[in-house]
Amino acid sequence: MAGRPATTLNPDLCTICGLNIDYVMQRLNFDEKNEYMQRSTKMTDKQIKRAQNGQRVTTDSLKSLAAFFSAFIYDNERKQITEDDLQRDHVEFKKAFPPSIFKNTGSSKPFPEKFIANRLFRGYYLLDQAPYAYQAYFMLWKMPGNKYKAAMIRGILDFNNCDIVSLRSCLEAGNFDALQIMFEDFKKDHKHSNLHLHLADNDHIRTDPDCLEISFVTQEDTPKHCTLVWDIGVINRASLIAYDGGICQCIDSGRNKFVCAYKLGLEAIDMDNGREKTDEKPPLNKRSPLLIEELSMEVQKGISKLDTDARWYYFIKDDTNRIKPAISSVLENTEPKEITSDMIRNQIQLLQTLLEKMEK
Questions:
Q1: S-S: 206 plus which of 135, 213, 214, 353, CB 3.0-4.6 Å?
Q2: Distance spanning both ends of the chain, measured CA to CA
């Protein structure tokens, strides 16, 4: 049954609501163009601006704004802002919700997308009884219209594998269709059974000043769900000029018929020193005991807490934790072949042909 249509409040109530809405937005340093506010309330900038000016406030917009504002209250014992609260007399509302109880976002750009979006990240994680760390690729794209999409390829055994390199090219290009087609071809050929492709569209991605949350769905006959939560608050709190990765927590539902949680360590492919991007470094050594220690979950009194990004930051900056660069991926991933007389003969013929062309 369809829900009841939204009702527009009378002009006097709209004016009162507008004063209260504007008061909270000023405390939070948000304006109608704030992308996070638009995405969370599912309101356009025009709808937010009209509500802030008290020109047109509907019951639906009031409900959305009340829930959104409540997330920025420090005092956990205080009841959340309700729709009725936003309709209270402005003086009473300010007494009930003084400026000191609101979190000061301190920025008109609450989500630090330049450090996160459109950058390719390697990922490392542990699964039950695994002798080494598993590997992944992760990328979040900023799309036209203030929208996002995300993809994660998990279960990578070798970043230099030619098929993985092809998947990476599609990933960096943001080509979802090519990613899915290539992944399906691998499955048909029974190749890379260890790989899992996770995708998420804009409706399943939440961003705010402190956190990135993505609800992924795997591309399989029986889709599985995986939620990634990344604490990115350190970027704004420390006013960072560079950020090369952090620790996330993933909750994987349905894999092997049980729900599991694990740490996912991410490192940007293009590390940034605040002035310029550096060359791509080799991956971390997935068999390193130090890496396994960094990715191990610690539980205290039944609560699992992630480490601060500081430990992970220093770990990925230490090049001794990385594998030694191979001469080439071909030499690294193929067995040496015996040099035969036919091979020598073919090379000689090729050289002779080239010399003849040069003489002409």
A1: 213
A2: 83
Q: What is the DSSP letter of 279?
A: P
What is the chain's alpha carbon radius of gyration, rounded to the nearest angstrom?
A: 26
Q: CA geometry: angle at 234 spanning 233 and 240, to 5°?
A: 125
Helix (H, G, I), strand (E, B) or coil at 11: helix
Angle between helices 59-70 and 11-28 in degrees, nearest 10: 20
**C-alpha to C-alpha distance for 166 and 171, rounded to whole angstroms:** 9
The string of DSSP codes covering 306-324 is PPPHHHHHHHHH-GGGBPP
| In the chain, where the domains are located | 11-101, 113-325
Sign of the Cα torsion 33, 38, 39, 44 reads negative
Q: Is the pLDDT of residue 348 over 60?
A: no
What are the pLDDT digits (tens) for 113-130? 888 999 999 999 998 777
Distance CA 30, CA 28 (A): 5
**What number does CATH give the domain 11-101?**
1.10.260
Q: Are strands 147-156 and 120-125 parallel, antiparallel or unpaired?
A: unpaired
Report the alpha-carbon distance of residue 74 to residue 149 in Å, rounded. 31
**Beta strand segments in the chain, E:** 120-125, 134-143, 147-156, 196-200, 205-207, 211-218, 225-231, 247-253, 260-268, 299-300, 303-304
Say whether pLDDT at 337 is over 60.
no
SS3 for 208? coil
Element (H or E) spanning 128, and its range? none
| CA 230 – CA 143 distance, rounded (Å) | 20
Nearest partner of 139 among 225, 221, 230, 224, judged by Cα:
230
CA-to-CA dists, residue 79 to 70, 89, 336, angstroms: 9, 18, 70
Extract the tokens encoding 11.
């002009």
Encode pLDDT of 155-213 as tens digits.
999 999 999 999 999 999 888 888 989 888 887 777 788 899 999 999 899 888 788 99
